Amino acid sequence: MSWFTQALTSSIGKKLIMSLTGLFLISFLVIHATINAMIFYNDGGETFSHWGHFMGTNPIIRTLEIGLVLGFLLHIADGLWLTKANNDARPVKYAVSNASANSKWYSRSMGLLGTLILIFLVIHTSHFWIPNRTNQFATGEELNLYQMMLDIFQNIWVVLIYVAGCFSLFWHLLHGFESAFKSLGLYHVKYNGAIHFVGVAFSIVIPVLFALMPISIFFGWVY
Amino acid sequence: MSAGNMRLTLKVWRQSNTNTQGGFENYNLDGVSPDMSFLEMFDILNEQLIEENKEPVAFDHDCREGICGMCSMFINGQPHGPLKGVTTCQLHMRSFQDGDTITVEPWRAGAFPVIKDLVVDRDGFDRIISAGGFVSVNTGNAQDANNLPIAKEDADDAFSAAACIGCGACVAACKNASAMLFVSAKISQLALLPQGQAERSIRAEKMVAQMDAEGFGNCTNTHACSAECPKEISFENIARMNREYLGAKVSSKAL
Ligand code: HEM
Ligand code: FES
User: Does one domain contain both B137 and B85?
Assistant: First the structure.
């Protein structure tokens, strides 16, 4: 094995990949949340559609989108691989475990939370991204995503699934944001407080912003 | 030791050897003193078992003063029981209530197979140390201590890391049975000192490779390890090991 594959498939290397892809996905969330938040202008989707059109057609963004898909796939594959390997490292489980005395439940449940996010992603992409890209591919025309949102979020069950997805993301980030820095070796009293503060704030702000979108449409605050 | 009056039910893991399936046995124990250590309580249990012509419970212990790291017991769901910063031999029965049922299991990890009852094989730790946790120098008379200037902060951090007694509580506590706190303490201790510089890169590479080969899990950064460590080894060591390893991989001569 070359030094490179050896490094990346080692325990620390696998975590490096988790961390880098996780931080990349965090950067994606910033863009995604910002553009979607344009619906709160409540201008019949004009600002939102303007930016949606840019994101859906700009060649640079479309190229970066391939990176995003790869980033997701890498994070998911590596995450499931790690979860399996970590589970296998303890073939006989404890009869009594008082893990809450030493760690947070969401830190111990990253595999479960990630899987919930994955299920949400399948539902979410089949609502918007897949139909839109398929239509673009077939006809060259974009779909009216704003109108689709208004329609899809009339269903209370869909809204609840989206809110549940936001909760999963909240806990995934609450552990993941800080964890990604630790995996890179960045853990020091000089800046731990700052990373913790930004991590907690990010984990709250982004999921709340996302959750407000289906909720606002369902209650007719955005139309 | 004063005769005690605590009455306990012990649920203890019994397993005759590595290849057999184990199971829990329940034992009632009377007259336990709150001043006894947890191991002394087990001595009483074993005397009782011997008197009843039963096989005593095998458990590891040596110094009984909290410095050797042998006394591995997973007590009521935590390595070394409920107290922070202590080994099993330093845990006393006053931490429990009269009438309690106490569950005692061995460390659980694929890399720590059960030898018998509560005794597990921790040779994996020794093999990790043999892979690089040393400094190759000629021995002889110690040189004058002040010949090697070491910054106070580095000496403090190296000393804290060197406090690791290799008990394996980090592995036992971690949901992934990861050995990273142990390995990172051993890597840090030498990486922080001038004597450790010559083999710094190769040490990180070899020790991590051996750790992975032993079948320990990966780190999820839950901090369970340092929360349960009897020597309160800092989580900072794991971050340092990540830097040491990744740095070594991109810069060392080894191909
Ligand atoms: C937008 C979506 C997502 C974001 C922003 C995200 C972000 C992160 C971050 C920052 C980490 C911490 C990395 C580290 O500890 O070094 C992480 C860990 C993890 N992620 Fe995600 N993630 C997302 C989706 C997913 C999905 C869909 C899965 C599906 C399996 C997943 C599975 C995991 C697992 C298992 C871990 C923990 C690995 C471990 O250390 O044991 N994530 N994630
Ligand atoms: S017997 Fe030595 S540390 Fe407990």
Answer: no
pLDDT band at B87 (very low <50, low <70, confident <90, very high): very high
The CATH number for B70's domain is 3.10.20.30
Give the number of A-B residue pairs with CB atoms closer than 8 Å. Answer: 140
User: Where does a domain end: B83, B115, B147?
Assistant: B115
pTM of the model: 0.94
Angle between helices A11-36 and B236-251 (to 10 degrees): 100
Between the CA of B37 and the centroid of ligand 2 the distance, in Å, is 11
- Three-class SS string for A31-50? HHHHHHHHHHHCCCCHHHHH
Indicate whether residue B50 lines ligand 2 (CB < 6 A). no
Tell me: the pLDDT tens digits for B195-234?
899 999 999 999 999 999 999 999 999 999 999 999 999 9
C-alpha R_g of chain B: 20
The rounded distance, in Å, linking the Cα atoms of B182 and B148 is 27
Ligand nearest to the CA of B80: 2
pLDDT tens digit sequence for A99-145 = 999 999 999 999 999 999 999 999 999 999 999 999 999 998 999 99
Q: Which of B76, B178, B235 sits opposite A96 (nearest CB)?
A: B76
Is residue A45, in this structure, part of any structural domain at all? yes
**Residue A118 near ligand 1, beta carbon < 6 Å:** yes
Sheet with B74-75: strands ordered across: B23-32, B6-14, B101-105, B74-75, B78-79
Tell me how far the alpha carbon of residue A18 lies from the centroid of ligand 1, in angstroms: 7
Contact A174, A106 (CB under 8 A): yes
Using a CB-CB distance cutoff of 8 angstroms, which residues of chain A are in contact with residue B76?
96, 98
Identify whether B11 is part of a domain: yes
Return the exposure string of A112-136: e unless at least 16 CB atoms fall within 10 Å of the residue's CB, then b: ebbbbbeebeeebeebeeeebbeee
User: B158 and B202 in contact (C-beta within 8 Å)?
Assistant: no
Closest alpha carbon within chain A to B21: A92
Please work out whether the CB of residue B71 comes within 6 Å of at least one atom of ligand 2: yes
Mention every residue, 6+ apart, whose C-beta is less than 8 A from residue B8. B28, B29, B32, B41, B96, B98, B99, B100, B101, B102
Residue B163 and residue B81 share a domain: no
The DSSP code for B115 is E
Mean pLDDT across chain A: 96
Residue B159 belongs to what domain range?
A: 122-254
Nearest in space to B249 (alpha carbons), one of A50, A124, A12, A122: A12
Place of tokens 């094995």: A1
Examine the domain organization and report whether B175 and B141 are in the same domain: yes
Q: Which atom of ligand 2 is nearest to the CA of B230?
A: 3
Is the pLDDT assigned to residue B1 strictly greater than 80?
Answer: no
Residue A98 forms part of a structural domain: no
